[in-house]
Write a structure and sequence with these properties.
Number of domains: 2
CATH class of the largest domain: Alpha Beta
Low-confidence stretches: 1-15, 433-443
Strand content: 5-15%
Helix content: 40-55%
Order of helices and strands: HEHEHEHHHHHHEHEHEEEEEHHHEE
Shape: globular
Mean pLDDT: 85
Number of strands: 12
CATH topology of the largest domain: Rossmann fold
Structural class: alpha/beta
Largest sheet: 8 strands, mixed
Number of helices: 14
CATH superfamily of the largest domain: Phosphoglycerate mutase-like
Radius of gyration: 35 Å
Length: 451
């Protein structure tokens, strides 16, 4: 047990600390993939029934995002933002969820962003069943349980009642477009799949072939879908766990002086919503500035960018590097003020050390994430549970050993005390016995007795 604990102590990573002086800008970008084919997913555990590829409509979106990143972070136009990046051979790292639409987006985005490179930038990914970085939202049984509970809440049932007409019009549109000749209004918790079917069908059609009233239905459906999805991954239901690993990765990349200047995560709209919730921005935050999240879905080809800028670019009064958060909505960059701690008001930018401390203190990591999500199926969560049990056993063994040692010590002290008391008693009696013996002594041949 002591060996096991020693190994854990050696393996524990040192606390991350912002560098005293950040001299270069960095950008950590989280993107939503480009347009894809139709997708169905379970409304409770959020797992999907297929892995649809990108569609042809994805390429213009990805090209627009590449141009937005180039204008903001590459010379010569980057100078206006104070966020010029060194994107040399080792200045870029790309990661993706292990799905066709995100892997394809990452490859196309990097190809557009760096068209003259002789070698492509590698894209790293992990197996879907083990991806708690970009796809933690469908591996959290506790979140699934809260979703099921929310579907029966007063808030949700009221929205289900008032949205019945919209869901009926979506069913009519699906029949008109011959996507589903038998389409009917579905329950609100299953509405995402119907919205996605309509959205994909309209975007894949010739614009002139889509009736104007159907386009209007799509706008209504998008607003209703955004209402549901933003709350699914908001603070009151999700709580921040699904974005914690990613935001910790963002913080680590932000303070990694020797790491790449540009870090790209090719992911999904729930990934982006989870990251926003983890940093303190969500539709259920109570801030009116966040209401936009419940009005329209984060579109395909959109992106979040965590920028790290040196003091000279952070503002005249800045004493250290700062982090600011921007959102690319497909047409322009928007600044999102963020809290630098749970108790502070939102700012246009946070000091880098305050941002890192906020992330480290506020969000669960490793075993804490497993406990928060009630996940005991992932190998890492089973290992964490085993280590916790082992640690408890080691602590119990140590406590028992300490108790035995104390008992032994007390026994030794008691035995020693008994010896001392016995010796003292014998010493106290010895003189009297000596005098009694002497009084009876005689001296042979002298006829004398001792007095």
């Amino acid at each position: 047990h002591s060996w096991h604990l020693a190994q854990r102590e050696r393996a524990r990573p040192p606390a991350r600390k912002a560098p005293a002086k950040m001299t270069r800008a960095k950008a950590i970008v989280i993107t939503r993939h480009g347009r894809r084919s139709r997708l169905d997913k379970n409304p409770h555990h959020l797992r999907e029934s297929s892995d649809p590829p990108l569609s042809a409509q994805a390429l213009p979106e990805i090209a627009a995002l590449a141009e937005a990143l180039r204008s903001r972070y590459l010379e010569p136009s980057c100078a206006a933002n104070g966020a010029c990046l060194d994107t040399g051979s080792r200045g870029v790292r790309a990661e993706s969820s292990g799905l066709a639409r995100t892997l394809g987006t990452a490859e196309a985005l990097l190809g557009r962003l760096f068209p003259n490179r002789s070698l492509p930038t590698p894209v790293y990914s992990r197996a879907e069943h083990d991806d708690t970085l970009l796809r933690a939202y469908n591996k959290c049984p506790a979140h699934a349980a809260r979703l099921t509970e929310w579907y029966g809440s007063g808030e949700f049932l009221r929205q289900e009642t008032v949205s019945l007409a919209v869901r009926g019009r979506v069913a009519d549109a699906l029949r008109a477009l011959e996507v589903d000749p038998r389409a009917e209004a579905v329950p609100l918790h299953m509405f995402w799949n119907e919205f996605d079917a309509l959205d994909v069908a309209i975007r894949a059609s010739n614009a002139s072939a889509v009736p104007s009233d159907v386009e209007g239905v799509l706008a209504e459906a998008g607003g209703l879908a955004a209402w549901v999805e933003a709350r699914k991954f908001g603070a009151s239901i999700e709580g921040g766990a699904c974005g914690s690993a990613l935001l910790r990765e963002v913080a680590a990349a932000a303070v990694d002086v020797g790491g790449p200047d540009l870090h790209v995560f090719s992911a999904h709209y729930p990934t982006m919503l989870c990251a926003l919730t983890a940093v303190g921005v969500s539709v259920s935050s109570g801030e009116s500035a966040d209401s936009w999240l419940g009005e329209a879905l984060l579109p395909t080809g959109s992106a979040l960018a965590f920028e790290v800028v040196p003091p000279e670019a952070a503002g005249a009064a800045a004493a250290s590097a700062a982090v600011r958060l921007l959102y690319w909505d497909g047409s322009e960059w928007r600044l999102i003020p963020v809290p630098c701690s749970r108790s502070e008001a939102r700012l246009a930018s946070c000091p880098l050390d305050a941002f890192v401390r906020h992330v480290e203190v506020s969000l669960p990591d490793g075993a804490a994430w497993c406990r928060a999500c009630d996940n005991d199926s992932l190998a890492r969560c089973r290992l964490a549970a085993f280590e916790a049990i082992t640690t408890q056993e080691c602590a119990a063994d140590a406590a028992a050993s300490a108790a035995v040692a104390v008992i032994c010590l007390l026994s030794i002290l008691l035995f020693g005390a008994c010896l001392v008391i016995g010796w003292l008693i014998r010493s106290a009696k010895a003189p009297r016995q000596g005098r009694a013996v002497v009084s009876r002594m005689t001296f042979p041949g002298s006829g004398l007795q001792a007095a």
